[in-house]
Amino acid sequence: MNATRGLALAAALAAVALAGCAKEQTRYGDARGVETLTNQFGSTDLQMMAESMARSMNQAPIIASANLPIVTVQEVRNKTSEYIDTRAITDSIRSELQKGGKVRFAVDAAGMSQQSEELKRQQSELYAKEQAAEIGRMVGAQYRLEGNIVSIVKQVKEAKDVYYKLNLQLWNIRNGLLEWSDEKEIRKTTTKG
Asked: What is the pTM of this model?
């Protein structure tokens, strides 16, 4: 009996030792591939929302007919129950819009302090005056892009349903008119079984 228990214990320890020595393998995946690990907000959701909203905004009459309007982008507000990097959403939408070539961007509120610091730095004696950026030459935006992401989560027994909605609005800064608005919805359902 003692020998049997000792043999079983030795086998168990050997299995643990082998598991600890197992090599970790890393491989590249398709960054555009559909991510289905969880029903939480993920990379596929971010890509779908950014592309859909940029496509819609580029087709809006105020953008399509204008001569490169200047837009400032406010960070999307997270009104979900989970942590979502809303700056990543904002950056992806800006990137998609930039690719369309129909919009120019003014510095946003988050980048204003860095912009101001750079202008001040260039006014120092370290820079040649004729090549330094001048204070008072920044261009103000004509439009402000802002929005929210919300979610509704429902769970019944083994099924969990998560609904996400991103809403964006483009406001005319000079007259306060809403020039464009759109929504992108995503629903993800997970069942255990």
From this structure: 0.76
